[in-house]
Amino acid sequence: MDDLFAFPLVPGLAYADAFLTSEEERALIAAIDHEALAPFRFHGWTGKRLTASFGWHYDFDTAAFAPADPIPAALLPVRARAAAFAGLDPDAFVQALLIRYDPGAGIGWHRDRPVFEHVVGLSLGAEAVLRLRRRRAGGGFARASQPLAPRSIYHLTGEVRHEWEHSIVPMETTRWSITFRSLSQRGRAIGG
Ligand SMILES: O=C(O)CCC(=O)C(=O)O
Ligand SMILES: [Fe+2]
């Protein structure tokens, strides 16, 4: 049975339960709530989820990509472990995005911006469903769905990162997430 679960749902998606202890989860939730979270904005539209980004900020209102405040020190130990999960150097993960999804908040279908490459995400507080879809040549979508348990980790790279879209079903109870991103070649060219 283990092999069944080790086989990725979609190539490039890795997932593991029980990555964080409950104590770490509590401390990380407190660290997120300590930051000045602001409603996500997209071309003048305001989303329900609250976010703060560190290291680099991609502004969805203006498409500007610029350095931001450094990643808080409290996140560095977990960044190192998340990087190890992804098989990458901790310093590669130059962006941290903190999100709080209060009830009713989710995230619509998207692919992460091309200035970024690897995405590693930690889930806190409540289980979410990460939906995945990829347009089929003949019409319609191939679909998959990955439950994200609280205290779990996921990594998006390769096919799932570049060819599939993802979304988070609107939450019924509050969920927090921390996603770390590396820069793509394009991101490094723009950002230096
Ligand atoms: O909350 C999450 O785990 C995913 C967030 C996400 O897809 C994004 O910020 O691009
Ligand atoms: Fe995303």
From TrEMBL:
Superkingdom of source: Bacteria
Keyword tags: Dioxygenase, Oxidoreductase
GO MF, any single term: demethylase activity
Native organism: Allosphingosinicella ginsenosidimutans
Record's protein name: Alpha-ketoglutarate-dependent dioxygenase AlkB
Entry keyword Protease: no
Matches recorded under InterPro entries: AlkB-like, AlkB-like_sf, ALKBH4, Oxoglu/Fe-dep_dioxygenase_dom
Pfam families with a match to the protein in the record: 2OG-FeII_Oxy_2 (PF13532)
PANTHER family given in the database record: 2-OXOGLUTARATE AND FE-DEPENDENT OXYGENASE FAMILY PROTEIN, OXYGENASE-RELATED
Keyword rRNA-binding listed: no
Location of the Fe2OG dioxygenase domain: 92-184
GO BP: any one term: demethylation
